[in-house]
């Protein structure tokens, strides 16, 4: 198993955002965590990278307990986050943003090769590689955020609400990338409110509500019923 979370709690003072969660991701696997806004999904991802205050439980990555590791060490070990809202550096160019993802790498030729692949996959980024991030559309910024994460050569990518604020056409493009990432030996833990897309692209899924996992299983077996959506989720439009 690549990633294992066991009995994880995340608390912000008196507020408990995640309560006793168990989640695992195997090599080459896409696992989704779905749920309504405020369910604790982003806090769960933050705990994996050391950005959220985990007060109990353990996190292991490639068999090593990383619960006490600082965030930079987790990134160097192969865990990267594509955050909600993209959070690119708008004062830097597209290419400078991409190279920021490779800041810890020393393999110059590998960096060039990955940059070439990203420009081939995202031709809009190539055309705008000298432009500031501030001039990109929302969809282009999401492509840039994913490209920046790829430049880190991750083993596990944490995707936080990649469809948020994007047009349906761009959302389809973003989700088409996920299968390409797994082909590059990148496992994915996906947090997403778009239930249908999350279930379609993942092998296993968890439903999170009020910080607690209330349903887990094979994504293909999840019943798209009114009862499920009424209890835990927002029905897709």
Fold and architecture overview:
The chain has 237 residues and is of the alpha/beta class. It is 36% helix and 27% strand. It has a six-stranded mixed sheet, sandwiched between helices. A four-stranded antiparallel sheet has the order 2-1-4-5, with helices on one face. Strand 7, helix 7 and strand 8 form a beta-alpha-beta unit. The chain is globular. The model has no long low-confidence stretch (mean pLDDT 90).
Question: Summary?
Answer:
The protein has 237 residues and is of the alpha/beta class. Helix content is 36%, strand content 27%.
* Shape type: globular
Structural class: alpha/beta
Element order: H for helix, E for strand: EEEHEEHEHHHHEHEHEEH
Task: Evaluate the radius of gyration.
Answer: 17 Å
Instruction: Tell me the fraction of residues in β-strands, as a range.
Output: 25-35%
Distance between the termini: 35 Å
Instruction: Give the fraction of residues assigned to helices.
Output: 25-40%
Oligomer: single chain
Q: Largest sheet at a glance? A: 6 strands, mixed
Number of strands: 10
> Low-confidence spans: pLDDT under 50, at least 5 residues?
none
Q: Figure out the total of helices.
A: 9
Across the major sheet, the strand order is 6-7-8-3-9-10
Mean pLDDT: 90
């Amino acid at each position: 198993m690549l990633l294992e979370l066991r009995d994880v709690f995340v608390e912000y003072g008196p507020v408990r955002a995640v309560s006793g969660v168990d989640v695992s991701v195997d090599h080459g696997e896409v696992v989704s965590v779905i749920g309504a806004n405020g369910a604790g999904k982003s806090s769960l991802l933050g705990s994996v990278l050391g950005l959220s205050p985990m007060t109990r439980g353990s996190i292991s990555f490639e068999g090593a307990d990383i619960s006490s590791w600082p965030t930079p060490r987790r990134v160097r070990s192969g865990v990267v986050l594509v955050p909600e809202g993209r959070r690119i550096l708008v004062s830097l160019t597209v290419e400078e943003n991409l190279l920021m993802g490779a800041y810890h790498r020393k393999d110059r030729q590998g960096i060039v090769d990955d940059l070439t692949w990203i420009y081939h996959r995202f031709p809009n980024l190539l055309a705008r590689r000298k432009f500031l991030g501030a001039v990109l559309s929302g969809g282009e910024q999401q492509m840039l955020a994913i490209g920046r994460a790829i430049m880190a050569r991750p083993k596990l990518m944490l995707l936080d609400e990649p469809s948020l604020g994007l047009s349906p056409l761009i959302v389809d493009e973003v989700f088409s990338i996920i299968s390409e990432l797994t082909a590059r030996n990148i496992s994915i833990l996906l947090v997403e409110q778009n239930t249908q897309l999350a279930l379609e692209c993942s092998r296993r899924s968890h439903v999170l509500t009020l910080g607690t996992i209330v349903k887990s299983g094979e994504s293909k077996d999840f019943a798209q019923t009114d009862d499920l959506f009424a209890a835990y989720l927002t029905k897709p439009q």
